[in-house]
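Run log, item B.
One chain of 322 residues. Sequence copied directly from the ordering sheet:
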Amino acid sequence: MIQDSTDKQRLQRYIISGVKISVLFIVLWFVSISLYNSVLQVNWSSLTIRPGYFICGTLIVISATLLGIFIQRNLYSQSGFYLSRIQTFILLTLPPIGKYLPGKVLSVAGYAAIAKSFGIEVTVSSSLNLLIMGTGIASISMIGLLLLLFRAPVYLNNTLQSGVAVILLIFIFILIYPGIYQRIMNFMLGLLKQPPVRINLNLRTMSKLFTGLSVQNGLYISGISVVVLSAVKLPVSFLPTLIGVSCMAYVAGFLIIFAPAGIGVREGILLVMLTPAFGAETASIIAIIMRLIQTVSDCLLATSGFILWHFLRHNAHEKARL
């Protein structure tokens, strides 16, 4: 009887995994074909090298990372746990590399495992990580929708703009309202087979966190977008549209769990939404360059975090021997 139940669960996992892989393959196939056909028509003279934009964008990404360290460190401090700046940097940069392989869920598990090595309970780190991710997604959604509402009217008429603005405000309030968010967080912990927790949240704390993450995520995506401008000949006036679409592509890639690092999904959103503003050829180039820049950025930050984590563990082992 127990064996039959185990076999049934294993079969269900295989079926779900098969469906995810199939959907991912279909998405990658159609996006790849669209990108390929667009690239064939590209006017390569639109590519350029502008070192000033590259340096500026890189500095903006670094500032976003520093702000992220401050936000996470402060959040853990309010929960009664002290983390050094190096430990917070490791938590901020190393676990996200797991979204490429094996996937987003295990990236969350990796975050909890690293936090545990710093003396943070799994339930606490998992809860705070989900809190940061959920609030972060809400902040990126707000930035993207606001920019598309006021800077890219090609996507929406006036009536739809007003309706989307109201829905956006309601959506943000629901996500930052402590009682509702607490239930969402415990539901997610239940999916991860973790016991429910109760963190001391209030509207002021959530609002401060939301504001901080809005600035951090806005800086990060703006920095990546500025770096893109260092390689593509586009006027600075197009930057708000590029940032807004990039925000929506990031959110879509994050929410589609079966796509590692949102691969295929982000590119598809960028291609579809940037084509009316820039044309299919330029949109495809932007999608490819943005994927390369984000991947290189994630790898560099994760490598730095891993090296620091290795040194911390090595020093801890040396002290234990003494």
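Observations after the first pass:
- The mean pLDDT is 78.
- Residues 14-278 form one domain.
Flagged for discussion on Thursday.
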